[in-house]
Amino acid sequence: MKKDRGLLIVLSGPSGVGKGTVCAALRNHDTDIQYSVSATTRNPREGEVDGVNYFFKPKEEFEAMIKNNRLLEWAKYVDNYYGTPRDYVEETLAQGKDVILEIEVQGALQVRESFSEGVFIFLMPPSLKELRSRLQGRGTETKDLIDSRMTVAKEEIEMMNKYDYVVENDEVELAVERIKSIVTAEHCKKERLIEKYKELAEVE
Amino acid sequence: MKKDRGLLIVLSGPSGVGKGTVCAALRNHDTDIQYSVSATTRNPREGEVDGVNYFFKPKEEFEAMIKNNRLLEWAKYVDNYYGTPRDYVEETLAQGKDVILEIEVQGALQVRESFSEGVFIFLMPPSLKELRSRLQGRGTETKDLIDSRMTVAKEEIEMMNKYDYVVENDEVELAVERIKSIVTAEHCKKERLIEKYKELAEVE
User: Which positions fall inside the Guanylate kinase-like domain (chains A, B) (predicted)?
Assistant: First the structure.
């Protein structure tokens, strides 16, 4: 039986909800999920490895990738570009492996435009109160910045409609189990399997 | 936060695929899934308990249930009626509990008509050869009967299109894990959660 194409899983949600923590915990589980590596024009920090933490690109090369539609999504923060190279994702999916992208809400909506068959998961805080407390817990942001992130978070929650699934991040391990279940269930969807099984029904 | 309505999970598939075995194995797992009890007009066998194995009904009462649309599906085998009472399913779902029905393909398609929001899972043999070997393994059926079941099975596989998910029953425990994942994933579907979370986005 021929190997199915992998799934692109897009994990997103408001700043502070715990996307990074959930993704890191997922890595500790025994899954075949591959992790997409972003490209950026910023300089590598101490200990960062090209192709592991990021693909470090000169500005001209990044801009050529934008122009040639080689990025599933991209954004510019201050003076640096960040984005998701399309080639790595496409090649991995073609090998029958699932790929997960952990990105901001705006980036996820861009991916939806160019890759609508992806599985879009919105990671949700148990409450807005809890989200504020997580942002405060980082201890790195001023009250004004936190207020502004909370305003953005409320707007982002309204965009939940563009996603396929909503996973509450009440406890990291529970959120990870829900994400793993979503991946398993998506592989069992009739639409993904019907051709394979029609062949099976003809052969005895 | 108000409790979500439960899900109706319909597990079906060709005769011999192992629906009963998978359902029994699922019962041994720690889940909150409830098992629907069928109604029948046949006489109880030694040790069968009313309301546990079946709801045993007089013929007149069963026919009144058909007439009043109190069954999600029903069929007549030889001289006896069998069917799924609607009330138990509706009451259990309203309590926020999931209900699983394990039924034949024709019954599942009837349920689809009256309960389209159910989660329909088609249990699939790894191959038709394996299905024949499972039917032979029962040791209770003649070669003619097995041939006829195989013909029906091929027709039923064509009906897979009416289902939401296809689960391969290669190993019982793997099939059970896939079904549990489907149930978890369905509870995370955006459509089922969006109203709840829109309320959340308004309250801090």
Answer: 6-184
Contact predicate B160/B122, CB 8 Å: yes
Task: Tell me what the mean pLDDT of segment A102-126 comes to.
Answer: 93
Residue B3 — pLDDT band, cuts 50, 70, 90? low
* Cα torsion angle, A14, A15, A20, A21, sign: negative
Q: Does B119 share its domain with B130?
A: yes
> Are both B128 and B28 inside the same structural domain?
yes
pLDDT for B55:
94
Among B150, B167, B188, beta carbon nearest to A165: B188
Boundary of a domain, candidates A96, A114, A133? A96
Q: Considering only alpha carbons, which residue of chain B is nearest residue A128? A: B204
- Tokens describing residue A112: 């939806």
Whether A118 has a binding-site annotation, put simply, is: no
Residue of B98, B179, B184 lying closest to A182 (CA atoms)? B184
Cα distances (Å, whole numbers) of residue A148 to A75, A133, A135, B18, B183: 19, 14, 11, 55, 37
Q: Is B196:B153 a contact under the CB 8 Å cutoff?
A: no
At A84 the pLDDT is 96
Q: Which residues of chain B are within 8 Å of residue A204 when distances are taken between CB atoms? A: 127-129, 132, 150
